[in-house]
Every structure is written in structure tokens, then in C-alpha cells.
Amino acid sequence: MKLKDVAQQPHLSLRCGGDHIDRDVTGGYAGDLLSDVIANSKAGDVWLTMQVHMNIVAVAVLKDLAGIILVGGREPAEETLERAKKEKVAILVSDLPAFETSGRLFTLIGGGA
Amino acid sequence: MTMLCRVRADLHVHTCLSPCGDLEMSPRKIAATALARNIRMLAICDHNSAENAPAVIMAAKAGNTTVLPGMEVCSKEEIHVLGIFEELDAAFKLQSIVYDHLPGKNDPDVFGPQVVANEWDEVLGFQEKLLIGASDLPVDRVVDEIHRLGGLAIASHIDRQMFSVISQLGFIPDGLRFDALELTCYIRTDEARHRFERSRQFPLVRNSDAHQLADLGTNTSEYLVERPSLEEIRKALRDEDGRTVIEE
Known about the structure:
The structure holds two protein chains of two kinds. In chain A, about 35% of the residues lie in helices and about 20% in strands. Chain A is of the alpha/beta class. By secondary structure, chain B is of the alpha/beta class. Chain B contains eight helices and eleven strands. Chain B has helices at about 25-35, 55-60, 90-100, 110, 140-150, 165-170, 190-195, 230-240, and strands spanning about 5-15, 40-45, 65-75, 80-85, 115, 125, 150-155, 180-185, 205, 220-225, 245. In chain B, the strands form two sheets. Chain B has a nine-stranded mixed β-sheet. A two-stranded antiparallel ribbon of chain B has the order 5-6. The longest helix of chain B is centred in the middle third of the chain and has 13 residues, at about 90-100. The relative contact order of chain B is 0.19. The model of chain B has no long low-confidence stretch (mean pLDDT about 95). Classes of the chains: A alpha/beta, B alpha/beta.
């Protein structure tokens, strides 16, 4: 599955990184503690989080994540968006809360591992 | 020539105002305990509030303990940041900004009572805001406001799994200008330097984060300063004019 297929879900909208959504998504990870995401997410995961601080971009780059999905309608901070554009990381926003977003994406992508 | 002396300071002490703080953390008992344990300097940092700082300052006058007013602000990322000031006025200005950005109402049965006390340990009232909650201020803004008001911004308990800048953001972001990072008693300083790569850019200090009297002054740093004041601590953190944080 490609990130662009994920991005087509009706509850998701793209905020940046439209040129980089051709990459493969192999799983997903949900978490708001960035220390935990650094420790436990896997390359190719889409990452669901509430954190909008620009460090999320660095974590996505560090872990080679497929993209970031901000849940509950949270918008990326301005500097986060700038950094994401520079680092070529796609950020999407989900209108739905974390549980509902996870449920839909789990069905779509499968459980990863 | 300036005479420098060693001052042991505990710059992170809660009172009975914090919902999770023990009721015995009253102004007079805090003052008496600091004196008995030879802690010459305290900063009162309740969650998102400075309302009990005046009472502890007054209560500690007799024992000649310097008490700085402060707060432990919870940012929107749920990072705890200490804002420590020389003057009450500055602490209350920060409090007013935080109160404007702090949603919710406390439920004492769930989180605990938030007792505002005077220097005689009499109850003046109860703070009704949800002090245990997170403000909606981004951490950068919290640090900026503390600096704008002339205070020191210290990242709380960076080795904890919750509410620390490291747990919440993975690492200390570029450009976030903490004056120091705080360690708990659960980690050695050399271990912290090793584990947190970016900690080398900052001074490390120890505070008790006491919520009960037993813990007050149990995890502290010593500072080589001319006198116990915020300006002297600031110099010590910057290694200026011979002032320094004494490494254990």
C-alpha cells in the first residue's frame, strides 16, 4: 500500500509533502511520547499522534516513517510545517480522534508485522 | 574581593497547593524542615500556580532561608518546566498568563485539595482551577515568557518517563533555551550525561521535587555563589565570575 492510498481516506487531509506520498506504507504506530516512538516505531510506519511540535518531523526522519497523521483535527505548528517541507515528510490531519483513526487505518493497512 | 560560599539549594518544592502535594507541605513546616536540613535556599514550584509562594517566603524569614517564588508550568506537550523568579510580581505575571491558558476545574475528591495557605499555616481558601492539567501553551512559549519576566527556565526531571522534555519530545529541540536541566535522585550525573546526548549543552541540577516533607532537600545541588539569590544562581549556571554548580 502506498501513502497516497492512505491519504485518499475521506477523514484525512494532506497538509504538506504531496510530492512524497508515493512511498510504501508497511504498518502503523500510534503514540504521543516521542521517546516511545523513537524506541518502538518501525521504518515504513504511518505514525498517528497528537503532538504537533516540530520534533515530530525529526522523529519521522530518524525512524524513516512513511508519514505523520495528526489525530483529532490537530493542525501542525507553523515551524513544524516548515520543517516537514524541508525534510520532505508528509503530514496529514485526521478529523477523527485517535481510536477511530487507528481503527480505520488498521483495517486498511493491516497490522504491519 | 568577593567571598564565595557553598549554598545547598532545593529549587523544586511543592506545597499543599499542588493537588498531589501532601497536606503537611504547609508554609511553616516547609520552612522548619529546610532549616533543620541545612537547605539555605528553596524555590516553591507548585503545578501551574505561585499562590503559596508568598506564605513560604514569609514563614522562612525567621530562619533566614531564602525562598524564591516559582511555578512548575505544564506545557501543551505535557512537559513540566520550572519558572523561578526573584520577585513575586514576576511569578504572578507568569501565573496570570498560565491561568488564561489552563482549562478545567479541580475535583478535590479525584485529584486532591488545592489549599492556599498563609504564613501561619491557616487555610485562606481553595484554588479551583485544574492545576494538575496541562496548559495550552507550547513549551517554547513557556520558556520565552519565563525569560521575558527575568526568570530561570529549568526542564523538570528530564530522566522521568512522563512530563519530561525527553519523554514528550524525544530530545531537546534546537533553540529551546533552558537555563538548566533537572535530574531526579534515580539517575547519576555521569549516567545522565551519557544517556541524554544534548544534555552536554546545559548545566545539570538536582532538586527534590518534594510533594511530602520527607523528601524535601533530599536531592539537591550545591552552588558556589556570593549569596543565595536568583542572580547568583543564574551566574552559577553560566559559570560566570567564579560562580558554579558544584559537581558531586
